[in-house]
């Protein structure tokens, strides 16, 4: 059941990220990737904070797939220098704050 | 999920299958390389490998082929879901909460700077191979 939940949510998370990226990313600023990474970090913080291993495993399937490091890294190499620094800083600060807040709420 | 309807069906199938394979690969690697008490080896490994692969895939003539199902499946689907940002940020947030500042900063730096370096390395590898093929 855990594997099935992981797989189903992994597909859903991937599709949601693809659709969000297609709709909100622009060549000069990846709003969609940023939003997916920040919201996913908050939600995974909430789930991991519960301390329930099944909730955590299933959450890592779906929210692990909603969020992405590879797209983030490649985007950093394609943006202008100033924008890439701003994008990296904003992504990390917002996502770490979101993850910390999620963990604090549920644990 | 209304948002996903903005993807054409063939693209959604490619992205979904790629995502399933990528997340499955991430699950498998985390099983094979479990986190030590201080360091999430499996997540680090999939994140770095995915950055190298996506850097390679996205390097040359990508924009012309970016909307093809194969590119979407391998890039957005497989690499996107093989790698994860949320597991990284939640682990770093937990390290920081436990006052393991050195591990938090080190893990974050290795993941992000290593990921960007490998994405650049993958792109360089692709461009070199394309030049050799000409």
Features:
heterodimer, A: 107 residues, mainly alpha, 85% helix, B: 134 residues, 6 helices
Strand and helix map with partners:
The complex is a heterodimer of chains A (107) and B (134).
Chain A: H1 2-24, E1 25-26, E2 29-30, H2 31-49, H3 53-66, H4 70-78, H5 81-106
Chain B: H1 9-32, H2 41-57, H3 62-65, H4 69-82, H5 86-97, H6 101-133
End-to-end separation of chain A in angstroms reads 25 Å
User: Which percent bin holds the helix content of chain A?
Assistant: over 70%
The quaternary organization reads as heterodimer
Largest sheet of chain B: none
Strand-residue fraction of chain A? under 5%
N-to-C order of helices and strands of chain B: HHHHHH
Number of strands of chain B: 0
Count every helix of chain A, treating DSSP H or I runs of 4 or more residues as helices: 5
Radius of gyration of chain B over alpha carbons? 17 Å
Backbone shape of chain A: globular
